[in-house]
Amino acid sequence: MKIIHTIAELRAWRKTVGTVAFVPTMGSLHAGHMSLIHAAKAAAEHTVVSIFVNRLQFGQGEDFDRYPRTLENDAALIAEQGGVDVIFAPDEKELYPNVIQQYQVTPPAIAEELCGAFRPGHFRGVATVVTKLFNIVEADIACFGKKDFQQLFVIQSMVKDLNMNIQILPVDTGRAEDGLALSSRNAFLTADQRNEAPRLYHHLSRMKAAIEAGDRDYSKLAVQAVTDLRVRGWHDIDYVDTRNAETLKAASNTDHKLVILIAARIGSTRLIDNIEVNLD
Ligand code: PAF
């Protein structure tokens, strides 16, 4: 396994190999990333994992500075799993040689809803860095986790809209035994917060069961979840929202493919999760 830090070296390597599956990450890898890597290894002859904490997708006052940077650990974890050809770990100057990235990819208005409403510019930062990485790695396939459902939606629609020559492979959310979605931000939780954190998934599961049983009063179900979360010390509950899973627009009573999404803070940590509901 090579660790490559420059675009030139990555491009030189890329010219020498066949099909490539790509897993873009911001590092601080956990078992959730390992399932993305596992899916990538099965999808192409070679696998590239990028590790880059992308300043452009963090808003002011967000956790860019405290975001864990653990390249050595990450490389050891990847080596242990085996089968990855390249870790691409550019520094900021390599990816953003201009102080301001002059050309940026602006996603459509749906990216200003849900997480986008609370993190202005976030998905433009994601779409821009992912486009740059796609242009550098020139992979055949890229794997994205369903935990970041709106991010996956933005990337899929960007690839389609801009005719990018890459296939997006969605990968199911990895979960701890108690249901908590695996996330690098879980590392910030205290022991008590960690015990409480699976409640997001419990509420999603309860809402899904209610909808499957015929309850289509999405707002009432959301209010019930929000009320309970508040009582239990959650705050800044950004949204509990049921959407059409294919368009991410507000769900109607006749939609069959739904996704329930949630974002809330416990202590100083913002967690997100979602669950799909298929009524076919
Ligand atoms: O999901 C992430 O870790 C990041 O948003 C990504 C896709 C690596 C872009 O920085």
Automatic annotation (TrEMBL):
Quaternary structure and interacting proteins, as annotated: Homodimer.
One biological process term in Gene Ontology: pantothenate biosynthetic process
Keyword Transcription assigned: no
InterPro entries to which the protein is assigned, alphabetical: Cyt_trans-like, Pantoate_ligase, Pantoate_ligase_C, Rossmann-like_a/b/a_fold
Positions annotated as active site in the UniProt record: H33 (proton donor)
Protein's job: Catalyzes the condensation of pantoate with beta-alanine in an ATP-dependent reaction via a pantoyl-adenylate intermediate.
EC number(s) stated in the UniProt entry for this protein: 6.3.2.1
More details: The reaction proceeds by a bi uni uni bi ping pong mechanism.
Subcellular location: Cytoplasm
Entry keyword ATP-binding: yes
Binding site for beta-alanine: Q57
Catalytic activity: (R)-pantoate + beta-alanine + ATP = (R)-pantothenate + AMP + diphosphate + H(+)
A GO CC term attached to the entry: cytosol
Domain of life: Bacteria
Keywords, comma-separated and alphabetical: ATP-binding, Cytoplasm, Ligase, Nucleotide-binding, Pantothenate biosynthesis
Biological pathway: Cofactor biosynthesis; (R)-pantothenate biosynthesis; (R)-pantothenate from (R)-pantoate and beta-alanine: step 1/1
Major place of residence: cytoplasm
PANTHER family registered for this protein in UniProt: CYTIDYLATE KINASE/PANTOATE-BETA-ALANINE LIGASE, PANTOATE--BETA-ALANINE LIGASE
Protein's recorded name: Pantothenate synthetase
Family, similarity comment: Belongs to the pantothenate synthetase family.
Protein source organism: Deefgea piscis
Binding site for (R)-pantoate: Q57, Q151
Pfam families: Pantoate_ligase (PF02569)
